[in-house]
Q: What sequence folds into this?
DNA sequence: ACACAGTGTGGGAGCGCTCCCACAGTAGTC
DNA sequence: GACTACTGTGGGAGCGCTCCCACACTGTGT
């Protein structure tokens, strides 16, 4: 109610300059923490800034400097899976945390339909954002390549294949799965089955590989009848479990590639009269709410999702500022973060 | 790779004008779908636009027009955990849907600590957004008032009290709770207990009122020993359930004000050897993932969260454009959307 | 005394748009 | 034939910044 209540509108750089008795350029330098301003002038400017309650105008700055101080987080809307889990919120939280230290806005974009995807391309070519975070990209998604063509720095979450070319952040699905299986072996389980996600999803594939490698490392042969492919849904998990029970009634442990599938498996096991963990140990993947609230609480592999978000944002910021310096976007490295097994009563 | 590959940078309004053989103003008029342009000129301009692949520059537009075509969605980070569930994503989806038809950006802001909250005030006074959506506002939150002072259109989700003065969208907590209790009565339950959230949260209060009103309407006296106050956590729900069982061992139904508390209650009931729904029927609130995956699946009151988000966004857009016309922000109405009971096996 | 580099500083010239005033053209009216 | 009354249209004047060149001023070395 004091200094900022001037006649209409917020104070401008110019006004701060007048107030401080200096030139516009000098104020700009102080605001941007830039070089070569005497301590004295700096103090005077800062005083004027606080007195007037000056806040730089974003639009003007963006226009003049040809940058936006904003990055976009693109979410594929139809992916119900990503909305269901805390995944989404955690990513956002991580990204937000990384951005909190900067002055950069987070613009959320739901790119669902083709129409929206077209709009998105417009957004991006309209210089609305300095960089893009792509979450849950599918193998055939044209967006990453489109962005590359437009020269917009991009970071994606999760590799689309073993030879991912784009800068990306992923969790170590293979190691996580292997740890889960090792845990089951350590608990003395002999016949460990697995329920996988669709194998054209790279992450699901890795988890299956982890299962295989852990068994191999323990000198156990992998019995293909102990592998059932499902689709990350509860019903799919249930069906897969039924298959497994038919094919190998003597199994005493199941590693499911997602908590939701584990929930389905659990239901089927119950129906078949198998007790968890007494008769059959169960381990999931994701450590979602479902895992914590399951009965019994589900042992699960926890992905550091928030940290992945944070890392993605940091990588992007680096590329955004780096681009100003050098020309091209060097084929960035894939950062792979470790997973952690959270042991609960189901195993 | 064709029209837009001009020498450095995207095409400008000016260039489109030259190409179309018209003035800048005319192009602007066409772009903004505004009045009084002859069909012929319009066509020429549109041709030039597509040929050049012209996309208006946001920053320039914002600067010149003194608006931003962006609204902020403010999320209180610390409580994100409570609402971590589909709530957050669903709100975003609803808001996104409402915005998809416009050309307005959604800027996500996590306002957690006081420091961030201060930054937020800066954001907003820096004219970064045209309006603000506030989600999950607490009674003592200074933000709404701050925004009002700054003259920034705001819509909040959930009333903070019966006499909410700000424009807001809420679900009918009272009716939802009442419906849940009525359902239990219809199922022939006689002794219905309730586990509430903290009663200084208005929504929790309403749900308790709904419980009371439903019983009263059925001519049943409300026994205060059947009411246990908890805190929306699983552990709280569990403790509350224990209390209730001690105080009223003969209860045959429980209405919990959240699914998470219901999950806690369920665990305690199991531990006490009560079967659900045979001995005790259980109903939750929120219809979250937890409810769907619980064993048995939990009957729960579903809030139209996505629609709430959509409605909030629409209300805000209305106020944003309305503000240009008239001066003040008329004390908007509170929109209250109906809840729906989703019946599953727990009752 | 001179030139010379180095440090602060002021302010012009835009960035790409919207707003709005001025003006041409056409048409209707006295 | 001169008046007003439109409808389209062109383009100047900013919006509030950043960038960068030019200009003091200070020192140092000759």
A:
């Amino acid at each position: 109610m004091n200094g900022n209540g001037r006649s209409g509108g917020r104070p401008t750089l110019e006004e701060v300059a007048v107030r401080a008795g200096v030139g516009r350029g000098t104020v700009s330098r102080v605001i941007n923490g830039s070089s070569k301003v005497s301590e004295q002038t700096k103090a005077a400017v800062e005083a004027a800034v606080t007195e007037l309650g000056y806040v730089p105008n974003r639009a003007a700055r963006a226009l003049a400097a040809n940058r936006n101080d904003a990055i976009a987080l693109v979410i594929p809307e139809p992916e119900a899976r990503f909305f269901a889990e805390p995944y989404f919120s955690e990513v956002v939280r991580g990204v937000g945390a990384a951005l909190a230290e900067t002055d950069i806005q987070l613009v959320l974009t739901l790119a669902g339909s083709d129409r929206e995807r077209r709009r998105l391309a417009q957004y991006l070519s309209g210089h609305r954002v300095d960089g893009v975070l792509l979450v849950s990209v599918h193998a055939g998604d044209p967006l990453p390549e489109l962005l590359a063509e437009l020269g917009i720095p991009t970071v994606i979450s999760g590799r689309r294949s073993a030879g991912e070319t784009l800068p990306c952040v992923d969790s170590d699905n293979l190691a996580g799965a292997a740890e889960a299986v090792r845990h089951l072996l350590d608990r003395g389980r002999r016949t460990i089955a697995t329920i996988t996600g669709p194998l054209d999803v790279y992450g699901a594939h890795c988890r299956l590989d982890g299962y295989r490698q852990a068994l191999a490392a323990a000198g156990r042969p992998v019995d293909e009848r102990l592998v059932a492919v499902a689709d990350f849904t509860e019903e799919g998990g249930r069906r897969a479990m039924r298959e497994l029970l038919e094919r190998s009634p003597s199994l005493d442990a199941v590693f499911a590639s997602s908590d939701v599938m584990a929930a389905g498996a659990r239901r089927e096991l119950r129906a078949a009269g198998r007790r968890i963990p007494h008769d059959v140990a169960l381990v999931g993947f994701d450590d979602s709410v479902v895992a914590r609230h399951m009965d019994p609480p589900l042992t699960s592999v926890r992905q550091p999702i928030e940290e992945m978000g944070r890392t993605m944002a940091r990588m992007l910021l680096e590329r955004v500022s780096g681009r100003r310096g050098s020309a091209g976007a060097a084929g960035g490295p894939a950062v792979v973060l470790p997973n952690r097994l959270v042991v609960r009563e189901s195993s």
